[in-house]
Amino acid sequence: MSGIAKTPEPPYYAVIFTSERTAGDNGYSAMGDRMVGLASAQPGFLGVESVRDEQGVGITVSYWASLEAIAHWKQHAVHQAAQKLGKAEWYQRFGLRVCKVERDQFFEM
Question: Which part of the chain is the ABM domain (predicted)?
Fold first, then answer.
């Protein structure tokens, strides 16, 4: 996951997942890659951007065409299993925000 996601003209939705990790990988990286692959195959998925700092605080923003697409992803069985593992092993705490993107602007050299 690198770079700026290429999203369509607004409106669309952003799901912002902010987390503080526990120590060690414990399968986290592999599951993260799997989640991106599965999400990418979901109808309505538009892209993802993700960063994590040295202290373990991360922000992942996924972009979606509709609230319905977000709801379907939330119910995906493998995604639900990953959520349970996240609560049990990978995160000290996390927050989730869902936003409607009404305007965007980009710059590129």
Answer: 35-84
